[in-house]
User: Which sequence fits this backbone?
């Protein structure tokens, strides 16, 4: 079983570092939990921001055959075990300081257990359907931390001058099981390791897994583990091999030419899974120094300057790194299920920067010609996820338009994107039936996918209907429309030389911090926001399985406590009614409806010390 973690992205953070201590599977029907991952000592810190729709391999392990209903993920919660560094350009209204690392005493981890010095948080993740492990077969466990979940990180800034912002970290809700139906389609984060052996047939190498140190050091050092992985060469299509020390590039179909020099070297590997669970390298970087394979920025694209042909990427430390794109820079798009496409560039040189073919928010891992040069020139850029996002408009039968605005106006884009072809394979539904064509779902209900099952074009028609709503606060806030994020793929039949939307998630539109205008009653209240001139009606669901998520945030001095309220219970409804009185501050994330109301997915209300606007 491959054991992995991944995440959905957050615009506000450059580093959200956690230490995963262990992962255990819980057998269906009872029995002792089966531990599938135990961290080395000290446990390496994993930056969740780098796992935007990517998977970080923690290990390949052997587990007893059987059926498992849930997993328990345990993270360390001592001071300094959670690292938060803000993005250099967070979204407007962000409570922290751009580019700053939050002091440990300003981080409150919820639901901890144990004594000081050995605090941890056990996170139980119940699977939407049981995970079956069969004898002699490969499987995968992927636990996803949803960084975009409104209740994962709550910043509370008091109105008093000089008051410190306290960040409450709540893993109860944002962690979920991401079902994997096809190993070969997983996009893996680049793997770091130390070569321990070259196979006698020169067809594979064995590496001991390494992690980059967090906080980042200079020069960067490796955190070694005892976990071993075997990486095979692509004997059919060839593996691109970069000798970082010699600054050479070659395509190899075995390791015979490198065997004598690889032992003990550090490597960075862009790998893909085969159906039998083996790993095959698309590209390998090798160096005698760990800093040599690490010193190539990995992170989200922050800026694309078409006038200077420079893109800026946030690195592991959250520092913006400018990269010059010259005529030799190659752009790759990770397509692990297609070996030839995974190793073939989709574009070369500055021409690829035009027409918004790479925009702010894409997740990339770049390699540079000379890591010691004063001005870094990009040798290759792996586009690991192509995410277009923002306000949705002009949805029709062939596509729709995204409009995204940032603090830096030069990064703004308006991009018309097509849906993928109705014949394009696109995963499976909850019953394992294959899906073709465009699909979409609401952020809160990832298992309720709307696809063309049974009727070609039905998913698009439903999407058009779902995105034509809006609510109007008037004033400087104005109209709030549907928001989404899409995963795009290159070279789909719908757009052979560009990007097409494979799927779209309708995300809760964030509304500015507001106050209750009319108190909560009959599952509704109205709210007014700063800069708005008209109150808007907010609908709250209390239906089991689709109830709105309500969180009470209480600040007393330097302590912030987050409590989830069950709105399907009378106690939860009573607490919400007591909290949502006229004038109470409230934060809502919801989906605009066609009738002008806001359907609340998450609402956060405050008690104790009130937050600053």
Assistant:
């Amino acid at each position: 079983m491959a054991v992995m973690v991944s995440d959905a992205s957050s615009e506000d953070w450059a580093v959200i570092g956690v230490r995963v201590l262990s992962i255990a599977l819980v057998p269906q029907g009872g029995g002792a939990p089966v531990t599938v991952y135990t961290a080395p000592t000290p446990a390496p810190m994993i930056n969740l921001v780098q796992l935007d729709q990517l998977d970080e391999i923690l290990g390949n392990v052997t587990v007893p055959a059987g059926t498992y209903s849930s997993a328990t993920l345990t993270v360390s919660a001592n001071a300094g075990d959670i690292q938060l560094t803000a993005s250099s350009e967070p979204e407007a209204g962000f409570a922290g300081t751009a580019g700053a690392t939050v002091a440990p005493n300003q981080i409150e981890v919820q639901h901890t257990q144990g004594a000081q010095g050995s605090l941890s948080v056990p996170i139980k993740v119940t699977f939407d359907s049981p995970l079956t492990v069969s004898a002699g077969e490969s499987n995968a466990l992927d636990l996803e931390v949803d960084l975009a979940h409104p209740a994962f990180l709550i910043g509370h800034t008091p109105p008093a001058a000089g008051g410190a912002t306290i960040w409450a970290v709540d893993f109860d809700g944002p962690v979920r099981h991401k079902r994997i139906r096809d190993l070969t389609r997983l996009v893996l984060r680049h793997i770091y390791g130390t070569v321990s052996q070259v196979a006698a047939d020169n067809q594979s190498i064995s590496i001991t897994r390494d992690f980059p140190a967090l906080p980042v050091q200079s020069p960067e050092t490796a955190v070694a583990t005892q976990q071993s992985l075997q990486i095979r060469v692509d004997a059919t299509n060839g593996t691109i091999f970069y000798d970082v020390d010699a600054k050479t590039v070659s395509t190899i179909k075995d390791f015979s030419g490198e065997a004598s020099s690889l032992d003990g070297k550090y490597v960075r590997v862009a790998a893909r899974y085969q159906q039998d669970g083996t790993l095959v390298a698309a590209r390998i970087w090798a160096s005698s120094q760990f800093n040599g394979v690490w010193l190539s920025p990995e992170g989200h694209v922050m800026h694309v300057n078409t006038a200077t042909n420079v893109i800026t990427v946030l690195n592991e430390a959250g520092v913006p790194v400018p990269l010059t794109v010259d005529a030799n820079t190659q752009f790759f798009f990770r397509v692990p299920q297609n070996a030839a496409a995974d190793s073939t560039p989709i574009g070369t040189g500055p021409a690829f920067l035009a027409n918004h073919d790479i925009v702010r928010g894409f997740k990339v891992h770049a390699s540079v010609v000379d890591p010691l040069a004063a001005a870094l020139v990009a040798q290759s850029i792996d586009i690991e996820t192509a995410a277009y996002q923002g306000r949705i408009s002009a949805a029709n039968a062939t596509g729709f338009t995204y409009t995204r605005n940032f603090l830096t106006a030069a990064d703004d884009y308006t991009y018309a994107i097509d849906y993928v072809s109705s014949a394009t394979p696109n995963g499976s539904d909850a019953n394992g039936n294959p899906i073709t064509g465009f699909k979409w779902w609401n952020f809160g209900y990832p298992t309720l996918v709307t696809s063309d099952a049974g009727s070609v074009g039905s998913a698009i028609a439903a999407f058009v209907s779902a995105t034509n709503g809006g609510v109007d606060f008037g004033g400087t806030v104005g109209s709030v429309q549907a928001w989404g994020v899409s995963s795009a793929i290159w070279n789909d039949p719908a757009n052979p030389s560009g990007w097409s939307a494979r799927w779209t998630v309708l995300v809760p539109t964030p509304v500015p911090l507001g106050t209750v205008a009319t108190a909560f009653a009959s599952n509704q209240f109205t709210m007014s926001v700063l800069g708005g001139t008209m109150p808007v009606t907010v609908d709250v669901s209390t239906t089991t399985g689709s109830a709105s998520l309500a969180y009470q945030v209480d600040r007393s001095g330097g302590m912030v406590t987050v409590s989830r309220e069950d709105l399907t219970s009378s106690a939860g409804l009573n607490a919400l009614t007591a909290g949502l009185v006229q004038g109470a501050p409230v934060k809502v994330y919801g989906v605009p409806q066609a009738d002008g109301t806001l359907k609340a997915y998450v609402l956060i209300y405050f008690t104790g010390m009130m937050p600053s606007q």
Observations:
- The radius of gyration is 24 Å.
- The first helix runs from residue 259 to 262.
- The chain has five helices and 46 strands.
